[in-house]
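Narrative of activities, Objective 1.

The group set out to show that a structural description can be obtained from nothing but a protein's sequence at a throughput compatible with the screening campaign. Below is one input-output pair from the validation batch, recorded exactly as produced.
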Amino acid sequence: MNRCNSLLLTALAALASVAANGATPLTGPNQIISSPGSYVLTSNILVSGSANGILIEAANVTLDLGGYAISCTNCGTGSGVIVYSTGTHIMNGTITGFSGSSADATGAGINLAAGADVRVDHIMLEKNYYGLSGAANARVDIADSVVHANVGDGVSCSQCYVNVRDSRISSNAGAGLVMGPGMVTGASIMDNGRHGIVEYPGPGLDDIIHVTNSIIIAARGQNAIFQANSGGTSPFVSVGFSTLEGSGPIGGSANYAFYVGMNTAGSCFNSANGDVGNCDTGSQTLNGTNHQ
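Output recorded for this entry:
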């Protein structure tokens, strides 16, 4: 059997496996998913200009990239995957090169419409404008993923509900993670161009984030965690069993209450001079000791 026939049989076997598992194979850009179900890439998808990779319009969709990449060259305003609905799960692959202008509110690896929700795991979001961006009241759960070297923020999802677990957000030119209320656990957020985490919940959203078992190192002159006064309710940040480093590790409005406790050396640590207690005004709990 020659090599071409062997490759063809391998590809056909892969397609047969996909069909047997009940997933619909996808190839080529500008795919629109309008029915619930499972979908899988069977090859890389290359996008150019202002095209999008995949648009998910239906609820309850699982998109398995199958270890392949959705990438873009000479990009304008497109995104790798745009999600318009709820119950979406995206996994197992890379989305890269969607670096269109920030003014377009696109140019993202994954772009969430208002009210959409998505679970992302084992995904690399690299060299897009935003790794992931979301509109108001979107919900995102990111697990076991890497958000790296994007042109703007790694995750730009202010006014979204955001959970990040066991993931790395690094070397993005903007902030590492811009989020509304949510939880960050087991994360490494470092080497970004601005703050590590910016919490910006927006009017009417709970103004609460919890950070545990994480390492967050800000750029020089920036905060590991910065909480913006954006009209949210019940402002509160809790940090446990984590390391925070930055010129001002925790910053934001002086009227906000911050509680930091049970953390490794480096909590409220000024990377410039080692000053402990360099936190903003408010109630502070540093390794079990309350500081005013």
